[in-house]
């Protein structure tokens, strides 16, 4: 049994890591497409477009937003993993223009392999992020599991008539990205080598609160966060739901330091390759395969992708009327 005094690498206890361990998007859609779920006028956002969370009108002007997100360790440090997972779960509420009110923990733990006081550090990280966000932590649920997994179910509130949703894009709007890409390849390198990337950890633990508030302040109506399906995957869902095409200027997309080197050295998550395979039939590109892999890189706790120009963040492309391909990269 691992003890708290011996070297502990949490990433070695899981086959995948972070949002890169998501079920492939094509497979997920095939399964969900066969479900028949209750609907009604007060369900403002449900399953139909694969948005970031569900939104239900609770009175004339308010909507409650609910989401759940959890994953296997993306970094070795328990406290940092807890912070990253909580930041990522809260992001779904921010991505829809809401304010998170309360979270409950979701924890799976191999208690015969990893001491439970390590889990306490994970939970402490999540609690500290929620405290910084002004979000209550109201308990949770824990199970014994062969792999460690952690995340949260989060409930928030939003203006029912000012939701950010992925089906509200309009031709002529610029596309703004609020965090750099490259988290997937850097996290995969960390898992393989133990190298620590401080910029990546800082990025994954930065709340999307300010970006969400800024988007609403500019009048934006369409957004999504960029997580396990990569920029291209989440952008494809957005333009498909909005009936548009997106033109991406590859040179304008920001990346974390070391991301290109990690790609060149072969640290590409399987989830990133699956993302690109899913989007490729709907993609026209004049850039290299390596560039496309980075654009499809599976992010963990990534930024917001907003249809609109947000001061202080880079514009990486624009929405245009529907063309032959849903996404054009040049």
Protein model, in words:
- The protein is an alpha+beta fold and 330 residues long.
- It has helices at residues 25-32, 78-94, 116-133, 183-193, 198-204, 209-217, 230-242, 259-264, 270-279, 289-295, and strands at residues 43-45, 54-57, 62-71, 99-109, 136-144, 149-159, 174-177, 223-225, 244-248, 283-285, 304-307, 315-321, 327-329.
- The chain has a seven-stranded mixed beta sheet, with helices on both faces. Strands 1-2-3-6-4-5 form a six-stranded mixed beta sheet.
- Strand 2 and strand 3 form a beta hairpin.
- It is globular.
- 49% of the residues are buried.
- The model is unreliable at 1-6 (pLDDT under 50).
Outline the fold blueprint.
Layout: H1 25-32, E1 43-45, E2 54-57, E3 62-71, H2 78-94, E4 99-109, H3 116-133, E5 136-144, E6 149-159, E7 174-177, H4 183-193, H5 198-204, H6 209-217, E8 223-225, H7 230-242, E9 244-248, H8 259-264, H9 270-279, E10 283-285, H10 289-295, E11 304-307, E12 315-321, E13 327-329
Parallel strand pairs: 4-5, 9-13, 10-13
Antiparallel strand pairs: 1-2, 2-3, 3-6, 4-6, 7-11, 7-12, 8-11, 9-12
Helix pairs in contact: 2-3, 7-9
């Amino acid at each position: 049994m691992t003890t708290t005094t011996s070297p502990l690498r949490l990433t070695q206890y899981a086959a995948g890591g972070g949002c890169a361990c998501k079920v492939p998007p094509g497979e997920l859609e095939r399964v969900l497409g066969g479900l028949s779920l209750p609907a009604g006028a007060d369900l403002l956002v449900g399953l139909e477009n694969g948005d970031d969370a569900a939104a239900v009108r609770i009175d004339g002007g308010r909507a409650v937003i609910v989401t759940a997100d959890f994953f296997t360790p993306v970094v070795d440090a328990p406290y940092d993993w807890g912070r990253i997972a909580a930041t990522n779960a809260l992001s779904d509420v921010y991505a829809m223009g809401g304010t998170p009110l309360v979270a409950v923990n979701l924890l799976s733990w191999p208690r015969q392999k990893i001491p439970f006081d390590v889990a306490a550090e994970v939970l402490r990280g999540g609690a500290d992020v929620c405290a910084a966000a002004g979000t209550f932590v109201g308990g949770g649920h824990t199970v014994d599991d062969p792999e460690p997994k952690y995340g949260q179910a989060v409930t928030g509130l939003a203006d029912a008539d000012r939701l950010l949703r992925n089906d509200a894009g309009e031709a002529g709007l610029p596309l703004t990205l609020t965090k750099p890409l490259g988290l997937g390849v850097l996290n995969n390198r960390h898992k393989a080598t133990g190298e620590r990337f401080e910029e990546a950890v800082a990025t994954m633990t930065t709340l999307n609160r300010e970006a969400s508030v800024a988007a609403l302040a500019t009048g934006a109506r369409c957004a999504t966060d960029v997580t396990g399906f990569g920029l291209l995957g989440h952008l494809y869902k957005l333009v498909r739901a909005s009936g548009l095409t997106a033109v991406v200027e590859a040179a304008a997309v920001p990346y974390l330091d070391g991301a290109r080197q990690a790609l060149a050295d072969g640290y590409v998550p399987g989830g990133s390759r699956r993302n690109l395979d899913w989007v490729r039939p709907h993609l026209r590109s004049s850039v290299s395969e390596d560039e496309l892999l980075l654009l499809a890189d599976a992010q963990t706790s990534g930024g917001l992708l907003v249809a609109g120009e947000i001061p202080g963040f880079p514009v990486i492309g624009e929405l245009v009327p529907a063309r032959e391909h849903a996404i054009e990269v040049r």
